[in-house]
Structure formats: structure tokens, C-alpha cells
Amino acid sequence: MVDLNALRTNQVFIVATVAIAFLLGADRGVWLIGLLALCMAAGVVSPGNGPIQLFYRKVLLPAGVVKPNREAGSAAPHRFAQAMGAACLALSAILLVLGFDVAGWVLGFIVVALALVNLLFGFCAGCFVYLQLGRLRSEQAA
């Protein structure tokens, strides 16, 4: 089972955090980008226990701000997408630290664009890549 509202909460955090980081500028915003990358990576390494996931489960659900929206399906494609997002944001933070501001922000905003596409249209690009890689492995094994 996959809770679509948990995924949407994660996407909102991505969009908001990167936007705030951008408004703060590279010198201060880089810390938010790095922290977001770590939070996302924690959710990949320990599914359901990343800071954003815990905030969703321990704060938003009990407060009634959002209700679960569970759907049948595997969480693996979503974890893969989150891992890719975390890796891209980590690289974004590294680029910002090294002074490659344009490249760092472009990479960060690519992650934002993909999160927005998923949030608004329900298309998960990382999930698509995951499924295509699985199909490719199956074809190679045959």
C-alpha cells in the first residue's frame, strides 16, 4: 500500500524548501538544500521514519490536517524516486558550496519541477525510470 497523501506531503516540502532556500540565497540556502537531501535520504534508508514522513504521521494526520489516501501498489518505485531526488539535491548543495550557483540552483529546481509534476498531475518521473529499468532487466534476463 502507498499513501498518496504522504507522497504529496513530501512533494510540498521539496517545493517549499527549495523555494525558501533560493530566496535566502546560495550562502544561506545551501544549508536548507543539504538538510532536505539528508531528510529525503533518511526516508529512503528507513522507510516511514524520515523526518518528513514522521511529521506527516505524527503531526499532520493526528491534527486532521490531512487524511490517509492509501492505494494498492509498491512503495519501491517511490523510494527510488526519493533516492534520486535526494542525490540530486545533495549534488545541488555541493555545487552551491563550491560556488557553482547556477548549476546548483538549476539542479535543485529540476527536482522541484519533477515534484510539481507529480503533485499536480500524478506522474512520478522517478517511478517511471524505476519501472523502465525493471523492464530492461527483465528483457536482458530473458
How would you describe the overall organization of this protein?
The chain is mostly helical and 142 residues long. It has one domain (2-141). Helix content is 80%, strand content 3%. It is built from 6 helices and 2 strands; from the N terminus they run βαααβααα. The protein has helices spanning 4-24, 26-45, 51-63, 76-97, 101-121, 125-141, and strands at residues 2-3, 70-71. The chain has a two-stranded antiparallel ribbon. Helix 1 packs antiparallel against helix 2 (26-45), helix 1 (4-24) packs across helix 3 (51-63) and helix 1 runs antiparallel to helix 5. The chain is globular, with a radius of gyration of 16 Å. It starts with a strand and ends with a helix. The model has no long low-confidence stretch (mean pLDDT 97).
- Terminal residue distance: 29 Å
| Major β-sheet strand ordering | 1-2
Radius of gyration, Cα only, in angstroms? 16 Å
Portion in beta strands: under 5%
Number of strands: 2
- How do the SSEs run, as a string of H and E? EHHHEHHH
Provide a count of the helices: 6
- How many strands, which pairing sense, and closed or not: the largest β-sheet? 2 strands, antiparallel
Shape estimate: globular
Q: Roughly how much helix do the residues carry, as a percent range?
A: over 70%
Question: Which runs of at least 5 residues are low in confidence (pLDDT < 50)?
Answer: none
Q: Tell me the number of structural domains.
A: 1
- Assign the structural class, choosing from mainly alpha, mainly beta, alpha/beta, alpha+beta, or little secondary structure: mainly alpha
Average pLDDT for all residues: 97
